[in-house]
Amino acid sequence: MSAPKSERTAKFQVLAPRNLANSQQRRNLRKATTTIRDKRTRTVAEVDDWEALREAGARIKERALRHLDVHLEQLEASVTAAGGTVHWARDAAQANALVAQLTRAAGSDEVIKVKSMATDEIGLNDALAAEGITAHETDLAELIVQLAHDRPSHILVPAIHRNRVEIRDLFERELGETGLSTEPAELTAVARRHLRERFLSVGVGVSGANFAIAETGAICVVESEGNGRMCTTLPHTLITVMGIEKILPRFDDLGVMLQLLPRSSTAERMNPYTSLWTGVTPGDGPQAFHLILLDNGRTATLADEFGRQALRCIRCSACLNVCPVYERAGGQSYGNTYPGPIGAILAPQLARLKDHTSLPWASSLCGACYEVCPVKIDIPSVLVHLRGRIIRETSDGPASERLAMDAMARVFTSRRRYELAQKAARTSSRPLSKDGRIEARLPGPLKGWTEFRDLPAPPAQTFRDWWRVR
Amino acid sequence: MASALSDADRSGARAAILAAIRAATPDVPADEPATWTAEEPAGLAPTPHGAREAVWRSEHRGGAQIAKPLGAEALLALVAERISDYRATVTRVQDEGGIADAVGAILIRHDARHIAAPDDLPPDLKPTLQAVRLYPDGDPPLPNDQLSALDGVLTGCALAIADTGTIVLDAGVGQGRRTLTLLPDLHVCVIRADQVVHTVPEAIARLRTVRRPITFISGPSATSDIELDRVEGVHGPRRLEVVLAG
Hints:
The structure holds 2 protein chains of 2 kinds.
Chain A: H1 5-8, H2 12-20, H3 23-45, H4 50-66, H5 68-81, E1 85-89, H6 92-105, E2 110-113, H7 117-121, H8 124-130, E3 134-137, H9 140-147, H10 164-174, H11 184-201, E4 204-207, E5 211-213, E6 218-223, H12 227-233, E7 237-243, E8 247-248, H13 254-265, E9 273-278, E10 288-294, H14 298-302, H15 318-322, H16 324-329, H17 340-350, H18 368-372, H19 379-393, H20 399-412, H21 415-429, E11 433-434, E12 437-438, H22 447-450, E13 455-456, H23 463-469
Helix pairs in contact in A: 4-13, 17-19
Chain B: H1 7-24, H2 51-59, H3 72-85, E1 89-93, H4 99-109, E2 114-118, E3 133-137, H5 144-149, E4 152-155, E5 159-161, E6 166-169, E7 186-192, E8 196-197, H6 200-207, E9 214-217, E10 222-223, E11 231-232, E12 239-245
């Protein structure tokens, strides 16, 4: 299902132009993000103390992160006491191996899945396939992405880049349906028919978690379609893969989070279904429950005192919907599980910084993402912070930019050097200028700067020259 | 290819993750409380101006502390309006004596004759119509294929949230196990006036001690996965009928 590794870590500036050239996708995205933006604005305006709620959300999550060890141990104890089993996984390979092992032990070679960012992040479906286990996505958009052998492009609506005609054609090709209209209601009914039998027959469910309550052991999944209820209720075995940052200390914290999340993500007062379960309940739902606590770069992210705020993210995708760069470039340009502004600060931290050196530059720093973030992640500031870290810590960071800044510092501290530099720029740029612009790709260390930018040509007369003759 | 994890790997992962967390947070003072609450004294963690007060308001939003509490009738009107906004249908009856007849009328309207219900469904919820047959779910439970084939399910609820138009089931009396309200295509749910709270935090406070599975239901299932065009009715019950008594 997933693209080759090289595609997933390819640079934003390589992937974005391809997506920018896809005018159908750009139309789909613009329509979708405009709709959801307007709706969100209206739903949030109903809440007179929205800003206080955001503040509470930020503080609850931030404090939980600062004491993550305490809360994880408490969660482990609560879940175990309620009849569940807790596993720990340092990375994707360990988590995938655990899911495969638990699935086989439950006597199954297939699983039904609730949409989950964590399992996409670890490439679970491919890893299970390699072990001979089939993973069935049951969220409508994930199903579309899976059938099309495509990549998700949005946190909430992974097939947001596909329109109804494309989806109708896909269903006719892959599900053996004929004579379908392009009505979303009819296409949705196809998914209901297609998946109902699976829900009733597959013995192992796999989910992520939106929240996990340390003090009670309750796991919370927030969804719309009912596929989440199906997968967490009908199988005899349930495996939940959860990033360790999803933890909330107290049950009461849900009172804040369940107000923030739906309004920020689908712009509804409340999403259709929210499920909470605590370990195992005799006679109700799965009788075996496994919780896998996943690190996979989260503790490394925690070590950056400023960058760690990215771990507050509750995956609402409000930042994607307001981002001018996302709206044009599309989610697949970000080359990893988490697209948009949050992806640009999460991906480089969860993975190795040197694998995502271009993402922190995939932003105009306009700040819209910070304004809508329900847990007040200061995305623009973290972007700038990560730009600094990339330049300082990786060889792939624009080394020429560092050299240029050093040189500039020298030039700016001496009047003589400054005036000489201006003269040199004027003379040397003359052959490259046209109508006051430099559109040529400059050679050597300046290549990086001009590869994706035009420059204004230096003026014929500087302010200093003009002042002198005046 | 198979990479089975040994027990050593697994306990190693636990220790390594906990150690990594501790190593990553040297900036956290030893005496800082592990959880943040709106009541936290300002001295322990500096808060931006007004945040504590504001958050306190959030947790009590709609409560007597900050605003006039909604009158009983205003609360019921709000919950009816907000549930209807999700394209669920709300039938109001004056008192609990009217519930059974309202349920019967709804079932007839949907031509739903074969109805699942938890075996501890309160008697005043049961329609008295000859045409309707109730199938009690308990011990033994109804098989999944039978549940899927029935016309609908009838339950009570734990509580309802007016602000968001949400019904909460907690597998308590008259609600049954989760599968019961999941497989049938029609869900008829009865809310009594004293089960309605104003805000989400109030609901959470009432559910604090529940360890049974909890389901929040806000309208019928829905998806916006195709061009963000909302379609009601995907996998759960495609139709939600609510009877509000009181």
